[in-house]
Amino acid sequence: MHSITDRLHVVANGSDPLERGRERGAQLRDALPAGLQTYLELFAKYALDEATVRELALRCADAVGDWRPARLAEMDGIAAGAGVEPWHVYALNARTEILSQGLGAAPGECSTIGRRVELGGGAVRTFGLQTWDWHHQLDGEWHTHETRGGTYDVVGLTEHGMLGKIGVNSAGLALHFNILGHRADGAGGVPVHVLSATVLEEAASVAEALDLVRAAPRSASSSFTLLDADTVVTTDITPIGVFVIEPVDGTVVRTNHFLSPEPQAEEKTEIYQPDSDERYGLIASRFADYPEPRTDEELLAFLYSDPGQPLLCHRPDPALPFGERWATLATVQTDPVARTARIANGSPIDARAGDWRNLVA
């Protein structure tokens, strides 16, 4: 496995969204086309031809333009800087919404833990950890980034061409990301990846982030696990509403199924289960069996599997066909108070023995 120090790192500092996008796109000019081509092939595997993808991407872009014109301008800037068509960048940012319309499309299996620890004397500490699992063929198509010049500076990781995914901002708000699925999911709202980027650019607290997400026109489901200096929650974000799940004993655990009753009634269980429940149960059991984790480093042991256990991290199986080779592409730790995101290639096992990229918002 390559060191994280070999991973592309994109820096954009423009206060004008269009120019900031151009700056980002120029740094992705050599890298973005390969990821775009892989996504077009992935869409086609799930019976989504290019004309359909373009139409769905443009519908999502219209929703972004009505909601946050600056985010649309930034996507246009990325396209100009990278030398691709605007709809290509729209499709990358809307890949969750587009894949929700595919036949047989399945998500990767991400697992997240958010913690709030009482330090004594009224002091608390919050921190988060997640694995990012996705298609092995896209392992070369993501980068770490820092974007400065908006309301708040943002650091974290994202895929080539996407405005954001997982990270922390200079106000001390952290966001972790898990995909979910509801039968009402579709394309035509603000893409969840644009929504995550906007939360990190504009929200200074968990409360502000929740207000922003509730006000956005959403058409697909995901979960944001949100942390600030005092608060940790996870969410069921759906087209039918936003549902907040509070921590139990200071902890939220997140996999890929709904945790609140209303969206559970129309969940796409045929895609996510029983795997998501099994992973959730394994992580939750460790909080009963292991010493209480008081640092993000101690959480690493909670997110990998022993032989015979549900898979919390994936090694790609070369025998499987394209579109079914899952891999744990990255491990991400966040610390809202320090405003840091620590990112490593691969699984928590790889991370313990490997290099981290330490970013400060």
Structure keywords:
eight-stranded mixed sheet, 25% strand, 2 domains, single chain, 361 residues, Penicillin V Acylase, Chain A, six-stranded antiparallel sheet, alpha+beta
Topology summary:
Blueprint: E1 9-12, H1 17-27, H2 32-45, H3 50-67, H4 69-82, H5 86-93, H6 95-99, E2 111-120, E3 123-135, E4 142-147, E5 154-159, E6 166-169, E7 174-179, H7 192-202, H8 206-215, E8 222-227, E9 232-238, E10 241-245, E11 251-254, H9 261-264, H10 269-272, H11 275-289, H12 296-299, E12 326-335, E13 340-345, H13 348-353, E14 357-360
Parallel strand pairs: 1-4
Antiparallel strand pairs: 2-3, 2-11, 3-12, 4-5, 5-6, 6-7, 7-8, 8-9, 9-10, 12-13, 13-14
Helix pairs in contact: 1-4, 3-4, 3-5, 4-5, 7-8
Summarize the structure.
The chain has 361 residues and is an alpha+beta fold. The chain has 13 helices and 14 strands. The mean pLDDT is 93.
